[in-house]
Specification:
7 helices; 17 strands; Pseudouridine synthase; 3 domains; alpha+beta; Structural Genomics Hypothetical 15.5 Kd Protein In mrcA-pckA Intergenic Region, Chain A; elongated
């Protein structure tokens, strides 16, 4: 059995259609309700019940739906590789994705991915991370959990190492205790199915940042940022950092070579010095918060910086002696 959803009817829903109660109270999508009707089973007080028939206060509704592609209830992931799973139950899991790994198989036929490493069954990525970005990711284990979690605005914090010295630049939309906001629309780069660009014709993209530390030496400056996404556009953090003149350390697609000649001259010495230490953009999903799709409990997860982050920061400590704390 892939999905078992249980609900006790309240006085408020006495006499309403079963399908309306399920959709409004459990968050079930109309599409899943149709699948339960056609291919699953709805029982009320252990007896078959039609979706369009009314229910009474105190009735125990149980909706079940089975598909061979999704993981059965009670079964857990058996990773074929060393993947850190921070949380898992019958509905979803939170994993710490290593860098250099796709979230899911690619359209070009590349099969190796976080999902295929975790399970032989289909997992639904509620959030996605670029191949080279490490950190926390939510994978739903069935369509219902995917739909309910996907409707919610999750808390997403990232750690980033970028070139240059950032300054506080708060706006009216900057949350309290954060240093600034980048509000630049993002759209697809013409002629590319992968690359994006900052463009007025794009969709609104909002990134909040907090300056955590800065390392300065003769070769240049690197800043460590804590970033919170208000929107989740493809490559948003990477593009916003480039657009403000502070590309991420290790970035290739939106790297320092995309800046003006003068800006490149300022960044080149430190960028070339750090290049051997990291082979991907220095971006890590460090904190994630969401509500459980069934219980409604608020859950938060944290993942410390990975080894390559620590390696670069240790090197910067030595190169620049003692990093200057921006915050008290």
């Amino acid at each position: 059995m892939n999905m078992i959803l249980r609900w006790i009817v309240t006085e408020q829903d006495h006499g309403r259609r079963a399908v309306d109660v399920l959709c409004e109270r459990t968050g079930m999508s109309r599409l899943l309700a149709k699948r339960v009707r056609l291919y699953g089973l709805l029982t009320v007080n252990d007896k078959f019940h039609r979706m369009i028939d009314p229910v009474q206060a105190g009735d125990i509704m149980i909706a079940t739906y089975t598909t061979d592609a999704e993981m059965p209830f009670g079964e857990r992931c058996a990773p074929s590789h060393d993947i850190d799973i921070l949380f898992e139950d019958d509905w979803f899991l939170v994993a710490n994705k290593p860098p250099h790994l796709l979230t899911h198989p690619s359209y070009t036929g590349e099969v190796e991915s976080l999902i295929t490493y975790l399970s032989k069954y289909n997992l639904h990525p509620v959030s996605r991370l670029d191949r080279q970005t490490s950190g926390l990711i939510v994978l739903a284990k069935n369509g219902h959990a995917h739909y309910v979690i996907g409707k919610e605005k999750m808390l997403k914090h990232y750690l980033a190492l970028s070139f240059g010295s950032w300054s506080p630049s708060p706006s009216s939309s900057t949350p309290p205790s954060w240093d600034g906001t980048i509000d630049l629309p993002i759209g697809r780069l013409p002629g590319s199915i992968v690359e994006r660009m900052v463009t007025e014709s794009g969709k609104r993209a909002v990134t909040h940042y907090k300056i955590e530390k800065q390392w300065s030496c003769k070769k240049g400056t690197v800043s460590r940022l804590l970033i919170q996404l208000e929107t989740g556009r493809t490559h948003q953090i990477r593009l916003h950092c480039l657009a403000t003149g502070h590309p991420l350390v290790g970035e290739s697609l939106y790297g320092w070579d995309k800046l003006s000649t003068k800006q490149q001259e300022n960044i080149r010495p430190l960028a070339e010095h750090l290049s051997p230490l990291i082979d991907r953009q220095a971006l890590h999903a460090t904190r994630l918060g969401l509500h459980h799709p069934i219980s409604g409990e608020h859950l938060e997860f944290n993942a410390p910086p990975p080894e390559d982050f620590v390696k670069i920061e240790t090197h910067l400590d030595a190169l620049c002696q003692i990093p200057s704390d921006v915050k008290d």
